[in-house]
Write a structure and sequence with these properties.
The termini are far apart. By secondary structure, the protein is an alpha+beta fold. The strands form 6 sheets. Strands 11-10-9-14-15 form a 5-stranded mixed beta sheet. The chain has 7 helices and 17 strands. It is globular and about 90 Å long.
């Protein structure tokens, strides 16, 4: 209870401070945790004992005051680290129990080895483009990528099962059956599996970028606006654009890698990376391509007769990646042109 009261006090202080400063996206008023929330848990900062027992670890929790029965330690496979730990979080999610132990110890800072390389990153729903080419690792990929197609097919199948169990005699059932709860947990586990596969791939990709490049340029995307579109909202949600940016920002900061955020209105897709000509009006490339010239959405054709790439079909995503790389050395063009 002491930890719960301490967290509640911090929440009210944060809420009052943001309200006084009139912060637009400040902390909201603290509310009770819902019993229906998928994640239930508590914190302990006193009385927890972590010890080594043979080749595994042992966790002993404090005994509640009214309890008079037997109290056993919890065995876990990992050996606890020889360092000071802080407040431990215990929570239940998707039918499993977890324990998060934050350790406090000093680690040597990561020293980035300068490679002299730089790249822009053009993000798409199905793949990302950088100086090394296309990377299919988030959705229905190839080239050794993480293939989530089978997982999403299982999710779709399980959603149908859950929807059928929700109805009773053609109407929404007022009481949830045990078979409904089992189907719900199974669906949650599938979503958790997809999330972990995506998160693992995103961590590996961002770490690779930070190690290989000295400077990186990414786009400032209007993710909320893209999610409002009924056409691409599901693909944008699965592509994790926001998570990609947050991971890259903190990793670049810790490694000392230069990160450039391109202006939201910088025409990386409409600008020719060779001559700088910008498509306007009916020359622009849309999601369906260009109707005037009959080009596809992934094709970029420059119609400037003085351009070396005049009337040549180039990959639109690679052209956008080159335009973003251009901003690293020429920040004065980082604006709506």
């Amino acid at each position: 209870m002491q930890q719960a009261y301490a967290d509640l006090g911090k929440s009210f202080k944060k809420f009052a401070k943001d309200k006084a400063l009139k912060v637009k996206r400040g902390a909201g008023r603290p509310v009770f945790q819902s019993k229906k929330a998928k994640r239930q848990g508590f914190k302990l900062n006193q009385g927890v004992v972590l010890a080594r027992e043979g080749n595994h670890g042992k966790l002993t929790l404090p005994v509640p005051a009214p309890y008079k029965g037997e109290w056993h330690s919890i065995r876990f496979s990992e050996i606890p680290k020889n360092a000071e730990f802080e407040t431990i979080s215990f929570y239940r999610e998707h039918g499993h129990y977890y324990m998060a132990v934050p350790y406090k110890y000093e680690t040597p800072p990561y020293i980035h080895k300068h490679t002299g390389k730089k790249t822009g990153i053009d993000v798409n729903v199905s793949h990302f483009n950088d100086a090394e080419g296309e990377h299919y690792f988030l959705h229905k990929g190839n080239n050794g990528a993480v293939n989530l197609g089978r997982v999403y097919e299982n999710i779709k199948h399980q959603q149908r099962i859950l929807a059928r169990k929700l109805e009773e005699n053609g109407q929404i059932a007022g009481k949830r059956s045990k078979s409904y709860q089992k189907a719900r947990i199974k669906l949650q586990k599938l979503y958790e599996r997809a999330h972990r596969m995506q998160d693992d791939a995103m961590h590996k990709y961002t770490t690779h970028l930070v190690r290989e490049y000295d400077a990186i340029c990414i786009e400032d995307l209007d993710v909320k606006g893209m999610l409002m579109s009924h056409v691409a909202s599901k693909g944008v949600h699965r592509a994790l654009f926001g998570r990609f940016r947050s991971y890259l920002e903190y990793k670049c900061k810790s490694a000392g890698v230069k990160l450039v955020i391109a202006n939201r209105f910088y025409p990386s897709t409409q600008r020719c990376a060779v001559c700088g000509n910008i498509k306007k009006n009916d020359e622009k490339i849309t999601l369906s391509g260009n109707k005037k010239h009959g080009t596809k959405h992934n094709e970029y054709v420059c119609y400037n007769k003085k351009c070396p790439n005049y009337n040549k079909v180039v990959d639109r995503d690679m052209n956008a990646m080159m335009n973003l790389t251009f901003l690293i050395d020429h920040p004065r063009y980082n604006k709506a042109l």
